[in-house]
Amino acid sequence: MEPLNFFWEEAKSWDELVEKCRTLWLDPAGSTVRAWKQQHPGEKAIGCFPVYTPQELLVAAGCLPVSLFGGRGQVEIDHADSHIQSFVCSIARSTLELGLAGHIDWLDGFVVPSICDVARNLSGIWQHNFPKGFVLYLHLPQNVDSAAAGTYYRGELERLRDSLATLTGRPVSDEAVRRAIRVYNRNRALLAELFERRAARPAQWPVVHVYALAAAGNLLPRQEHNRLLERALVLGDANLCPQRDVVRVALRGAFCEQPPLELLEVLEEAGCAVVDDDLQIGARFFLAPVAEAGDPLMALADAYRHRTVLTPVNNPGRRSRSDDLLRRCQEKALQGIIFASPKFCEPALYDSVLLKRALEGAGLPVLEFEYEEKMTVFETVRMQAETFVESILFFSER
Prior knowledge:
Blueprint: H1 7-10, H2 14-25, H3 31-39, E1 45-48, H4 55-60, E2 64-67, H5 90-100, E3 109-113, H6 117-129, E4 134-138, H7 149-168, H8 174-200, H9 207-215, H10 222-237, E5 247-252, H11 261-269, E6 272-277, H12 296-306, H13 321-331, E7 336-342, H14 346-361, E8 366-371, H15 379-397
């Protein structure tokens, strides 16, 4: 097997780097992961349901975390519908399809956090169909403001760490967890810089390009993704693009299942500059660096309780998702908000009702539609987005 091709070191242009990352993302079979396993005999690749899995613990255990976002529109559902309901979200069905059809036979285990009923069911179905594999359902604290929440969640992290030690046959030290936290803090800082540059100059940092660069981290060792992002920030500065009339928008609803890349391209072509979003939010779930000293498990628990991005699948405690979105709208000079929710995703659909009420009260225009993983026709979305942009530009000129 040839060595892993660290293509970001060889990329001579922004477009070349983005295209290679896009190809990597659209490979549901995970050829890069398969190559990593062949070069690291005996090491484990662990799947993660994508919204929040404490990947630092997996890295500390010597495993490769792989965020499972389903088939990303690249696989047909031939087996999964006989094991899971056909009216649940596409990400659950196609993730199960990847396993049943043997596309990800390199997978050694699966960690599923308690984000919704579908995730709970998926973990049980996965364990039933792959009884020899490692499966852990991670219980997240619901009352994050409770004095007991930190101790409770630290216990869950301890359970995960002990299970990983049993799987790999070696203990997971506190120092190994601290090292992993440092790597992930660096990754989140680089992603934050990438997204800040997009917010400041959306024409120079198109949403689909930034998405592809971030998505590569779901399949690569995180240290290598850090190097990729460092290269991307250099190449992106040289990628000058002409400015045009656009509307600055936030995209909400894609925190778990991801929209087709073509849908993001359609929105951009229609004049929507997506400068704030919850795409792949699991990679940038924390709002501040996790403490790198002291008890690393309690540091992760405290970060989850108090310093997370607010999504429909984590409890905000005393914080308000509506107030948080209104604040972001003001800080990033947003002119509109797009709610793009996956079909059958109850958390996203329920949450959008409350958020829309707050946005409409503040006089901010809202566009709403649903998508699914295998979506191939985008003309209706294009027409809606163009009308949305034109209405905002028209009223802003009056």
